[in-house]
Amino acid sequence: RQAQYRLLRDKPSRSIDGVSVSLLLNAGLLVDLPHLGETGADGVGLFRTELQFMIAERMPSAKDQQALYADVFASMGDRPVTFRTLDIGGDKLLPYMPRVEEENPALGWRAIRIALDRPALLRIQARALLKAAAGRHLRLMFPMVATSAEFRRAKALVEGELDYLARQGSPRPTQVSMGAMVEVPSLLFEMDEIARAADFLSIGSNDLMQFLFAADRGNKLVSGRFDNLSPAALRALRRIAQWAGAADCPVTVCGEMAGRPLEAMTLIGLGFRRLSMSAASVGPVKAMLLALDTRPLTEFLDRSLDAVAPGHDHVETLRPALLAF
Ligand code: PEP
Ligand code: MG
């Protein structure tokens, strides 16, 4: 199997009807990056910067952060990388940070919420990223954005750091793109605003589904109760693809869904053209793509998800039907 997937590495990732899909890697540490060459992925779609913080015994200094980001850029060659700013809190605790007791940590003080309340954290990280990206294109995105106002505040903080570097005469990136993770359902009702404010979007389907269905992703009693291929989940995803397309805002899916061939196939049928996944998923997803004709799939999805016609059987999940493609 592995050897078979390796044979696919240098083939263009394109369906049989000519739809190109960018396959990207999820990463978080330098050891993940050699997989770029092994898998032939187009770049890193999600670099989880919190990993460096989670494995450290104390808060990584600004220097440590900048050094890691510079090493990441050095490993990328000219392939793009999208850094996600610190996604801590919830289930991602740092041993050296005081623990905040919360009844519902997943709904609690985490990710961009901490960054906006403790802006020094984001400022230091943003400065480290901007410095490490000197002479290159920096793509960064914020996790757990619930409103477009939050996104704009985080973006302004990063722009403040960019101005600071300009005043210092320090080397800066050639371009800075800022994106929002779409993983809190409220953002689906502010799609116009966020698609206009952000340079790109990235769907964190793990959290998006957890919050959409109100089912803790870490609790086995409930995490399997809903299906990512149910009409509700697929309609939510399709709306995001449509809105982002209408606003000309590039959108990636970077949750685990994107790395499972049947779900990746469905995402492509819904119109997504950028999928980010673990290294082990690239081969299986690419094998699926090379054998896929998107036209009947898209027709099927449109037919199944559009307004329910009289006599239309309501299905709980499209999984069995999708398996037939
Ligand atoms: C997600 O929520 O789908 C995601 C990619 O982020 P994480 O799994 O790191 O929360
Ligand atoms: Mg998430």
From TrEMBL:
The organism sits in which domain of life? Answer: Bacteria
Recorded source organism is: Enterovirga rhinocerotis
GO-annotated cellular components: cytoplasm
Localisation per UniProt entry = Cytoplasm
A single Gene Ontology biological process assigned to it is:
phosphoenolpyruvate-dependent sugar phosphotransferase system
Q: What protein does this entry describe?
A: phosphoenolpyruvate--protein phosphotransferase
Signal peptide range equals none
Q: Classify the main location.
A: cytoplasm
Question: Which terms in the Gene Ontology molecular function aspect does this entry carry?
Answer: kinase activity; metal ion binding; phosphoenolpyruvate-protein phosphotransferase activity
**Keyword list, A-Z:** Cytoplasm, Kinase, Magnesium, Metal-binding, Phosphotransferase system, Sugar transport, Transferase, Transport
Q: What is the lineage of its organism?
A: Bacteria, Pseudomonadati, Pseudomonadota, Alphaproteobacteria, Hyphomicrobiales
Q: Which family does it belong to?
A: Belongs to the PEP-utilizing enzyme family.
